[in-house]
Amino acid sequence: MAETNTPYNLDGALLRRFDKLVYVPLPSKLSRFKMLQQHLINEEIKEADLKVLAKKTNGFSVSDIKKFYRESKLQPIKRLFRLSEDANGKAFELFM
Hints:
By secondary structure, the chain is mostly helical. It has a single domain, classed as Helicase, Ruva Protein, domain 3 (Orthogonal Bundle), CATH 1.10.8. The protein is built from 4 helices and no strands. α2 packs across α4. The relative contact order is 0.10.
């Protein structure tokens, strides 16, 4: 069993080793909206903003949306580290 977001990049010899190939299409705009809504249920995000995000994530797979969500949750922490590095030259000094 294997999965990929880029099946068109796989070698034909590799593909022949699999008995069955199943194509799962990318999520629709409505599906992306519902995934974002589910992941961001505890956040204060307006429905209109979720609709914009769903539109802007066209072409994203489910795993891409999950990665997008995880990365967005880390942005405030990354920002703190950058601020600390800019001010002190040491990333952890802000938290000690």
